[in-house]
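TL;DR need structure tokens for one chain.
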Amino acid sequence: MGVVALVGTRKGLFCLWGADDRRKWRVDGPLLDGWGIYHATFDPRDGTLFAAANHLVYGPTVQRSTDGGATWTRSKKIGLPEESGLTLNATWHIEPGRPEEPETLYLGADPGVLFRSDDGGESWEVNRGLLEHPTRDRWLPGAGGMSCHSIQLDPRDGGRMYVGITAAGVFGSDDGGETWNPLNNNVVAEFLGDPHAEVGQCPHKLLLHPARPDRLWQQNHFGVYRSDDRGDSWVRLDEDGLPGGFGFPLMLDPKDPDAAFVIPETSFEYHYSPGARLAVYRTRDAGATWEAMTDGLPEQAWAAVLREASAYDAESLYFGTQSGSFFVLTDGDRWVEAVRHLPPILSIEVTRWSS
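>> reply
TL;DR here they are.
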């Protein structure tokens, strides 16, 4: 047994194969050479690989493979209704549906849209509830566009789901995506005239804890937040131990709802490690306090880690930098630079494999 990491980069998709100790890794790739892989994932229901793939010439799409990446099939043309006046700029995140819906997948994209497929990714239909949301005229594209980058499905409630959109905020649905409610109470957006507006917030990553689905975490443009009531209200958590509130990635411990991990950056203007010291910050008390995890990380690094460029499983944490380094947590609290000199890393997903 071992672990395989799907690493999306600006120049294709790499498969990294690691043993159980996660110290040595074999690199295969690039697959989909020439495509920017904003996100790639395994479908745990049947093993299909999916990639949110973007190309300067061929445009945004979803690629899928049923033979481990040897061959790929492109989805039918993904587009938006002409009457919307919107253009599909990029595909961002693919989320497999629930086990009881074996052909269902979700796709987040720019400009702040969500698609659903019920035929295994062959074709996609836009979610009208978000496309035509009455607050859309108050949504603002961030520096990377107006991306729907986080899609979270409540494992206990088949109708409950959440999305995070930059810069619109967090939205929740109780009816499978037919209607959506803004869930941004107490989340600050300092760049707005009203920093506590209903929408316009800038979540960078949103995660639901699998063992405690009422608990949501988000790394926001302005801080780290936690909700214990399914997004109805949020508490800011970056006051004790973090060098600042700005950052992109977010990781959890699936066994411990009180644990979370973030990688701060200097500011929204300067996307690199505070004080030139790359560090992952951990909380074990639901965000009340934070501690730096630096063992094995370079003592001086102006590193940047993007919102999809981190992952976690029951045994470890993983993240990748824009300078092409792939780090893995081993022996409890020690980081290992397992692979270096990849193209800029955009995304990471991990799963178990057996040879």
